[in-house]
Each structure stands twice: as C-alpha cells, then as structure tokens.
Amino acid sequence: MMVFYYKNIERIKILTESNGEVRKNTDNGLDIAYESSDDLIFKLMEKVTKVSFWDIENDTNVYRYRITEEKPLISRADAKWKKISG
C-alpha cells in the first residue's frame, strides 16, 4: 500500500507499506505522528472531520465525492466536485 496526498498540484508520498514493513517519507510536510497506514488514515480522518473515527455513530450518513476535470487542474479553485451515490 502507498499513501499519497496532494499539496497544490504536487503529489507527495507519505508512506509505503509492504509485507508488514512501513517505510515513511519523513520529509512529507505532514505534522502527524503515525505508526502504520491504518493509524495515519484514522488520524487524517479525525483531522478533517474533527471527530474520532471511533466516536462516529453507526447510523451516520456518509457522502463520497470525487474530483472531475473539465479542463486541466491549475489550482484547487478550479476543482469540480461531483457527489457519488452510495
């Protein structure tokens, strides 16, 4: 598994996890301490939602979005968001 994020339009690798071995990119710009990809994902979710994953109720509605491009993406302001059913 590889975990990336985008800063402006630059893709930055955070970590690579394979066969139980975690290789971290320590120069990734994130100020989040983590032990594994799962730990990182839960902490990122909490940072975005301001709610711990473990505190989310089972009946909470969740919406998935993805970015679509009608023209080359120059900045975040150019992003078009489309709601995905489910």
Topology:
Blueprint: E1 2-7, E2 10-18, E3 21-24, H1 37-49, E4 64-68, E5 80-84
Antiparallel strand pairs: 1-2, 2-3, 4-5
Q: What is the CA-atom radius of gyration, in angstroms?
A: 15 Å
Mean pLDDT: 78
**Main sheet?**
3 strands, antiparallel
* Range of strand content: 25-35%
- Tell me the series of helices and strands, N- to C-terminal: EEEHEE
Count of helical regions: 1
Shape: globular
Kindly state the percentage of residues in helix.
10-25%
Strand order of the largest sheet: 1-2-3
The low-confidence parts are: none
Oligomeric state = single chain
Span of the ends, CA to CA:
25 Å
Computed structural class = alpha+beta
The beta-strand count equals 5
Could you list some keywords that capture this structure?
single chain, 86 residues, alpha+beta, three-stranded antiparallel beta sheet, two-stranded antiparallel ribbon, 1 helix, 5 strands
Description:
- By secondary structure, this protein is α+β, with helices and mostly antiparallel strands.
- Helix content is 15%, strand content 34%.
- The chain contains 1 helix and 5 strands, in the order E-E-E-H-E-E.
- It has one helix spanning 37-49, and strands at 2-7, 10-18, 21-24, 64-68, 80-84.
- A 3-stranded antiparallel sheet has the order 1-2-3, with no helix packed on it. It has a two-stranded antiparallel ribbon with strand order 4-5.
- The longest helix is centred in the middle third of the chain and has 13 residues, at 37-49.
- The protein is globular and about 35 Å long.
- The protein starts with a strand and ends with a strand.
- 1% of the residues are buried.
